Amino acid sequence: MGFDHPAGSRDSGKLLLTSIGAVYIVAGIAWVIGQIIHGEPLVNLLIVPLLVGIPGLVVLLGTHRLPRTDVDSDFYSVIGKWCLGSIGVSIVVLIVYHVLPTDSLSNPSRSILILSALSSVAGFGIGIHDARAKTRAREVTQRNRELQQVRAQLERSNERLEQFAYAASHDLEEPLRMVTSYLSLLEDRYGDELDEEGEEFIEFAVDGADRMKSMIDALLEYSRVETRGEPMEPVDLADVLATVTKNLEIQIAESDATIELEELPRVMGDRGQLQHVFQNLLSNALEYSEDEPPRVTVSASRDDSMWIVSVQDNGIGIPRESQEDIFEVFERLHTREEHAGTGIGLALCKRVVERHGGDIWVESEPGEGSTFSVSLPTVGPQREIEPRREGY
Ligand code: ADP
């Protein structure tokens, strides 16, 4: 992740660290020279320059390697400050120790040199830790900012799409009304003069216009899921499914279907929109049935903070490769002659469920039936299952 660094802060941090390392190397060498001038044998002198020079070398090499670590160069000065701080503390400790009446150092300058050199390495280590933590914190902040920007962009583009879909479908309604009314005028006024083929053409045109109206209505509804939604509130799904089965009474009776509603929970949601979702799922379960009468079961199970509500049928099933596509707008697996429909029902369900913070998916084998599952947020800790077991 890249940031814009003020070059000054990076360079001054590096310069400070290099200077600290260099000072101890030079001090180690200077110590040896000083002692030789004072006539000390060389072998006695090696220990001090090693204890001073090696820490200096460690700080110097560590600083040289810093650009290859994940520490942000803006925080090199933090490492420098930790080094200086550690050196300062060690010097103060030695001075205090030295001035105490009972204890004093035999060679204060040597002790200060060795201890402060070792402390500079300790400060360097702690500084890297601190700088790394600061680098992480900055990356997280930056990432959050980027995520917020992407989210805002997505929301804006979503809004524009909604407005476009709304405007397009709304504006199409008027010319479509004109087509439909002139077609019926044509039929009323010149119906007697048309031959069989002419009548059939008008019938096709009326049918096309009707289908277009259904699609426009569905698109309008799709574009209004966010804007026309009601606030979320506790919704008793047992009630919702009772209304849905009532609305589908005729379709259920005609297909001789059995609908079994198991215990259903209360969820947080928009009652009207949830009714739409389950009406769509149930109506599909009845529509895409095989030769035998449809058997549909609606059940629920709990998964952490969500309820999974499933609608299972014994219908024609859905091939694996189409199980995601069917949730897209106008995606259909059958011709109109085989099954009527606009192809927007499941896309609408998906949008509604997503507005509820949930998900929708299908498990199915062709010829074995399908199970559509919807995850919806729970209401809270109170008793959410309303016992109900009814057949329709
Ligand atoms: P529509 O039913 O209007 O065509 P949907 O979006 O509701 O549109 O469904 C999309 C497609 O998914 C349908 O055309 C159908 O092929 C398939 N489908 C939906 N529900 C089922 C089901 N229960 N069993 C089998 N196929 C289904």
What does this molecule look like?
The protein has 392 residues and is an alpha+beta fold. 60% of the residues lie in helices and 12% in strands. It has two domains: 145 residues, no CATH class; 149 residues, Histidine kinase-like ATPase, C-terminal domain (Heat Shock Protein 90). A hairpin with a 3-residue loop joins strand 6 and strand 7. The radius of gyration is 39 Å and the shape is elongated. The site of adenosine-5'-diphosphate (ADP) has 21 residues, from helix 9 and helix 10.
Question: SSE layout and pairings?
Answer:
Blueprint: H1 7-37, H2 42-45, H3 47-65, H4 76-99, H5 108-190, H6 196-223, E1 233-236, H7 237-247, H8 249-255, E2 258-261, E3 264-269, H9 271-287, E4 295-303, E5 306-312, H10 345-355, E6 360-365, E7 369-377, E8 385-386, E9 390-391
Parallel strand pairs: 2-4
Antiparallel strand pairs: 1-3, 2-9, 3-8, 4-5, 5-7, 6-7
Helix pairs in contact: 1-3, 1-4, 3-5, 4-5, 5-6, 7-9, 9-10
